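Checklist before submission:
- one chain only
- standard amino acids only
- sequence pasted in full

Submission:
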Amino acid sequence: MFDNLSFRFLILFICCQSSLILNAQEQLNNSNVENIDIIHTNYYTLLSAGITNPIYRDFATSPLFFRGIGLSLSTAWLKQSDSRERIFQLEIGGAVMFPKTPESNFIQTGGSSFFGQINAFYQQLWKLEALSNTQNNIKVGGALVITQNIRINGALLNNFLGLESIYNLMASAQITRDISRKKEKEINLLLFKPVLKPVKRDLRFLLNVGVLNVNHRPGYTYTYNSEMNGTETGSAAWTYYNYQWALNGWRLQTQLEYIKYLHNGNARSWSYVWRATHVPGRHEAFQMASHQIQFTLFFNSKKRKS
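Returned file contents:
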């Protein structure tokens, strides 16, 4: 039953992403925005879709690593200029996970679980004039990341539901290198000589390091054995019974992105995103990481002089 639900969820996710990307691509090419100019402040609306390989291990329920494949969909609002930028992003993702069990005649492999995640991300960056030049733009700042995990594994019986709320205040550093083609370039392929036109391109690397790391997780076990007292017991109180707040752990996020700008002011990009989180505990330590390949469409809604 759970496998059927997971399969339906992934199919629905694929259909939604395909429809959004096709419609967005048409609007991206037909926009009437004029040529992009770096001396302006640009306002972008971003739509992203990605393939994710998440990995996690939760000692509160099992010492096994769970690994899987999933999809993510996000939208963001970016205000960007040469000297400063600000972004707010919302992301939702889902994956089907499988346990990595040791080879044994007694432990049988198999089974699956669902891993869902909701992320909210806000970041501000300011340019370091002393370290930047015409080709490299270096910015530093901070970010706030809020993550809600939803893990469902029917094989764990009373421990079937796992919820983690993770809050991180992060220090951020970004370097953007201009790799634009300034002039036309002719390639000699003997039979024909294609001409590559000038194009604006950026290569961007972003690093976020957790400075203040807060999490809301249960104690030793997820077992739902709290008291049910008729209408006096609310669903939230029952779900979060025995949950505790803690100030510990660490979190890292990196992104390597290739951005190509269009003549109408819009852009598209491909990026690789890596994330890792560790929440310590005597018995209930939690570890999580993910690798993601992401495609993003940038819609330049308006711009004004800085």
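Reviewer check: The two ends are 56 Å apart (CA to CA).
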